[in-house]
Structure formats: C-alpha cells, structure tokens
Write a structure and sequence with these properties.
It contains 11 helices and 12 strands. It has about 325 residues and is of the alpha/beta class. Strands 8-9-10-5-11-12 form a 6-stranded mixed β-sheet, sandwiched between helices. A 4-stranded antiparallel β-sheet has the order 4-3-6-7, with helices on one face.
Length: about 325
C-alpha cells in the first residue's frame, strides 16, 4: 500500500514534508540519572526538510534530548529511529556518537568546542576527513587515492567556510575569532560531515543583535539550499518564531505542547511554563492597581494589568529592543528611527 505523504508549506512558501515522512522518529524516550528523571516518555517526530525548534525553561531536558538523539546518552527506555533520504531506517538508541554522525546526524554544542590552537580551515578539515575512504596505511604511504581524498577534503573545507561566510578567515586561529565567528565555525565543522539532520544547541547564545540576524539567515540557507533538516534548541524566542516551521515545548522532562509558532505562542501550558500560572485571588473581576488619581484601575503604564495577548511567549517582533531594531534597519539599508 502506497501512502501519499504530500507536502506542506513552510515559511516563505518553502515545501516541507508532510507528517508521514519523518526523518527522526523518537518515541517514549525516558532518561534517568539515579532518582532524577531528565526525560519522561518524550515523543519527537521530525519531518524531512523542516526546521523544528525545541524550547522550554532551563532544566526542561532539551540538551538531554539532544544527547540522547546523538548517542552521548543512552536512554533507559524508548526508540529513536532515523530514516535517511536514501531509504531504510536505523535505530540510534545505544549507538556511539561517531556512528550516529556517520549515518548523517551532526550537532553543535551549547559551549563552543573548537580546537582553538588550529586555524579555521584545519578545524573544518578534521570534520571533512571523517568522510575519507582512505585508511591510515594508504595515507602514510601517499597512495594516489589517499592524495585524491586529501584534495577533496581540502576543497570541501573551503566550500563550507565560504558558505558560512568565513572564507576570508580560513587561516586565522579559531581562538582568535570573534564569538559570533566561532559559532559559525562550529556550524561549518558540523556541515563538513555532510549531514542530513543538523542539531543546533543554542547557536545564538552570547551573540549580539547583528550576529543573531546573520545566524537567522544562515539557518535558512542551510535548510533551503543544502536541504538539511534542522533541529534547533534556542532561548531567543524572536529567532525561534521567525525561522521554525514547528515548535516543540518541554517542561520538567515532558512534552507539553507542539505546533506552529503561533499555536505554541498562545498555548496556556506554554505561557504557564514560562511565566507561571496566575495565583488564585478573591479580588473581583476588573480590579487592579489604582490609577494615579485613585479612582480605579490603571489601563496603561507600568502598573496596568497585562492582557492575555501580551502575556504569551514573545513573538519574532514583540518587545524588540532598540539595538536589534537598529541591526535590522542597517541590514535592510534603512535609516535607524
């Protein structure tokens, strides 16, 4: 029986696989550390070609989920099925991280893990050479196919560095690059392994507003031009809401919501996880902080009650600060307001 999974439209009209075409399918993932349950029966279905964001408060289990998907942790329960584009499927639970990477999954880390004493080019070549077919003996003997593989890894490293915007810094030491460029270099190193799924763990952490905008564009280019499915952990809600096709929310190791950015933004469980549930009160409806003249509740200003619309998870533009707005204006060629 043939199933037509169809296509759905992502941001910008980009085609995204339907719910039946899953590149990653995790079910019942439970991870415990002694008496602490980090993940409790988590389900994740990632569609081929999409950008899926995983969000949640600190300690929600987001990085534990990444570590479980990539082999750093072995969950006590559950299944993690990976279906590459060439067909077939692979169970990832229990595989070593290097074997998971060879199957087509690559990741970055919350804390940058570069070889700071090596150049940008050398960092990326190390990753590209994981795809070499030549063995140690042929490399040491300088056999023709080993030399061809070496040239190809060098070309691949240059291509990836150019793609992420670091072509002019390939001979600079990784440790001397700016923080934003180090983030890009780590992404380049992951891309050099030719992944079908790229997992980004808080790539915008520590970056300035201009770097965040550049990162936003880079994630889109990776997804659209390279055809790589992107699984993203990020605390910057403006970035998440602007690039993600769908958003999954974790809290205390459990999935509490999943849907489009708009749906998740308005979900009461998500709002409660981020901002807390409203306390029970005997105060009559409409009561609030008195206005300046003491005549009644204030409807505007710092003491005004927040409306439900303003109490949700911030949107891509909601609450944008002056620095970030100036960065957007600069990129679009407009004069800052």
């Amino acid at each position: 029986m043939t199933v037509d999974v169809g296509k759905e439209s992502g941001p910008g009209g980009r085609a995204v696989a339907g719910p039946g075409d899953l590149v990653l399918d995790a079910s019942g993932i439970t991870l415990r550390f002694g008496g602490v349950t980090s993940l409790d029966g988590v389900e994740l279905g990632m569609r081929r070609g999409e950008i899926l964001a995983v969000i949640g408060p600190n300690g929600a289990g987001k990085t534990s989920l990444f570590n479980s998907l990539t082999g750093a942790y072995v969950p006590q329960e559950g299944r993690i099925t990976y279906r590459p584009g060439g067909g077939g499927e692979h169970e990832l639970r229990g595989r070593k991280p290097f074997r998971v990477n060879r199957l087509g999954l690559a990741r970055t880390f919350q804390n940058i893990r570069l070889f700071s004493a090596l150049t940008a080019l050398e960092n990326v070549k190390i990753a590209a050479e994981t795809r070499l077919k030549a063995g140690p003996a042929s490399v040491m003997l300088g056999l023709p196919h080993a030399r061809r593989a070496e040239r190809r890894s060098d070309e691949r490293a240059h291509e990836v560095l150019d793609f992420v915007g670091l072509a002019g810094k390939l001979n600079e030491l990784a440790g001397s690059l700016s923080y934003g460029d180090q983030r890009r270099l780590e992404i380049a190193r992951a891309l050099a392994t030719d992944p079908q799924v790229l997992l980004l763990d808080e790539p915008a952490a520590g970056t300035n507003p201009t770097e965040k905008l550049e990162l936003e564009e880079l994630i889109r280019h990776i997804n659209r031009e390279l055809g790589v499915s992107v699984l993203l952990i990020e605390h910057d809600m403006r970035l998440v809401m602007s690039v993600a096709d769908r958003v999954m929310v974790l809290n205390f190791g459990r999935k509490i919501a999943e849907g489009t950015p708009t749906q998740v933004q308005q979900d009461p469980a998500v709002v409660a996880a981020y901002l807390g549930a409203p306390a029970e009160s005997d105060e009559p409806a409409g009561a609030g902080a008195p206005g300046p003249d003491g005549a009644g509740p204030e409807t505007s200003g710092p003491h005004a009650p927040r409306s439900p619309a303003s109490g949700g998870v911030p949107s891509a533009r909601d609450g944008e600060d002056a620095d970030e707005q100036a960065a957007r204006d600069e990129q679009s060629g407009e004069e800052p307001t």
